[in-house]
Amino acid sequence: MKPNWQGPMLTRRQQLAGVAGGLIMGALPSTLHAAGDEPLKDLAARKGILFGTAISAGQSSPMADPGYGAIVARECAVLVPENEMKVYVLGHDPQALNFGPADRIAAFARDNRMKLRGHTLLWNYGKYISPALAETVRATGAEKWLRAYIAQVAGHFGDRIYSWDVVNETIDPKTGEIRDTVFTQALGFDALKIAFEAAQEHAPHAQRVYNDYMSWEVGNETHRAGVLRLLERFRKENVPVDALGIQSHLGNDGSHSKLQRAEWKQFLDRVTAMGYRLLITEFDINDREMPRDIAQRDAQTAAVAKSYLDQMLAYPQLDQLLCWGLWDKHSWLNGFAPRADGLPQRPLPYDDALKPKPLRAAIADALRAAPVRKGIA
Ligand code: G3I
Fold first, then answer.
1. How far apart are CA 106 and CA 23, in angstroms?
2. Is 355 left (phi over 0), alpha (psi -120 to 50) or beta?
3. Ligand 1: distance of its center to the CA of 165 in Å?
4. CA-CA distance, 282 to 287, in Å (whole number)?
5. Fewest CB atoms less than 10 Å from the CB: which of 134, 202, 203, 244?
6. Measured on CA atoms in the order 129, 276, 242, 373, is the torsion positive or negative?
7. Is the distance from CB of 38 to CB of 367 less than 8 angstroms?
8. Model pTM score
């Protein structure tokens, strides 16, 4: 069956308008196209790209904060739940899953005519598999549990989800090998294969994505090599995987000199040569090692973003760009990677007061400069 996750199809006229708009606007200074001008989703759509963000269903959700809700609705064409489709929220019993929080996000997406991504069916990372879940999986049998769980989750959302992170973060960055979990102890590589096959069976129209956080920064060499080996094996064993989700949590070293642009290009070239499409699934910039001064910090963050997005958006296979939140105030980084000086992180396009930052302008600039592509097809 033909997948239903095609992106925005552009008419010839729209394509020409997009190209011309890019040339004209690209010549203007970034400050002239900060907030109040064209929504990021529209800039992206003109290039055949879906722009969106992760949101949560809790206190920090766009549903709970109308100011944030308006920004999300204006900027985004696609949403992904930050945590609400994870097993620790849905629960361990496939026959009694807690879909409430994810359904609230799905309803917000529907009411605002946005698409919905799913994250994630199998987070094969021991840190996120509780002892209680491991016990349930062992008692049920890993294959039986996995198939039943994916059948229920993918089946519940059906065609509302156009793209699933089927497997998340299964490569250990230190060794480049598949992580050792309750699933791989029982099934080895087949745990991953079963997950993708079950997703194909129960969400036949959705794009199937392998999602991971290997990046272009120094220290990621083993991780990248491991992901390449995994993607090669998927092809060799006919595992139905459509795309690589590149999380893009950037900026840990805060220095351009430590980025490996050439190695990153080799990595992306090898991934696309295997026929995988690409998407940016969790974009944000960790500013922990950047200056205290806010203007300097925001400028560095924007520069890293523009430089990265220019390289990424040059690939016609890349057709989705999702941030991991739009609002600094609720970034996961404040809890997971606090700054030594105690100041809050500023990793996202809108600041604590919901004012657009240079990072938003950098994303807009990169979208304006990107070539037109044929949507996600
Ligand atoms: O909701 C509970 C709350 O009831 C409780 O009081 C509180 C105490 O710790 O925890 C709350 O849950 C936290 C949850 O975020 C919601 O805020 C969890 O402890 C915390 O572990 C969880 O962190 C999430 C993390 O994944 C682990 O699931 C982050 O929000 C989320 O941004 C992060 O997202 C991951 C992607 O899924 C995969 N890629 C990396 C990315 C960043 O780590």
1. 36
2. beta
3. 17
4. 16
5. 134
6. positive
7. no
8. 0.91
The ligand 1 atom at the shortest distance from the C-alpha of residue 88 is 28
The architecture that CATH gives domain 26-369 is Alpha-Beta Barrel (3.20)
pLDDT tens profile 240-269: 999 999 999 998 655 555 678 899 999 999
pLDDT of amino acid 259: 76
Helix (H, G, I), strand (E, B) or coil at 301: helix
Query: Residue 141 is encoded by which pair of tokens?
Result: 């049998």
Measure 86 CA to ligand 1 centroid, in angstroms: 10
Residue 324: burial class (beta carbons within 10 Å; 0-12, 13-18, 19+) = buried
Residue 20 has pLDDT above 90, yes or no: no
Pocket of ligand 1, beta carbon within 6 A: 82-83, 86, 168, 213, 247, 282, 332
Task: State the pairing for strand pair 249-250/207-212.
Answer: unpaired
The whole-angstrom separation of Cα 13 and Cα 71 is: 28
Please check whether residue 146 is in contact with residue 198, taking contact to mean a CB–CB distance below 8 angstroms.
yes
Amino acid sitting at position 65: D
For atom 3 of ligand 1, the residue with the nearest CA is: 58
Ordered by start, the domain boundaries in the chain are: 26-369
Alpha-carbon Rg for the chain, nearest whole angstrom, is: 20
For ligand 1, atom 28, the nearest C-alpha belongs to 83
In this structure, of 90-99, 214-223, 319-328, the range with the lowest mean pLDDT score is: 214-223
Token pair, residue 62, equals: 């766009």
60, 83, 86: which to mutate for ligand 1, most atoms within 8 A of CB?
83
Of 247, 54, 87, 267, nearest to 181 by C-alpha is 87
What is the percent of the chain with per-residue pLDDT over 70, rounded to a whole number? 88
CA of 338 from ligand 1 middle (Å) equals: 15
User: What is the Cα–Cα distance from 208 to 164, expressed in whole angstroms?
Assistant: 5
Q: Which residue has the higher pLDDT, 284 or 35?
A: 284
| Per-residue pLDDT reduced to its tens digit, 206-226 | 999 999 999 998 889 999 999
Please, which residues bridge with residue 167 across strands? 122, 210
Residue 366: per-residue pLDDT:
98
First-last CA distance in the chain: 13
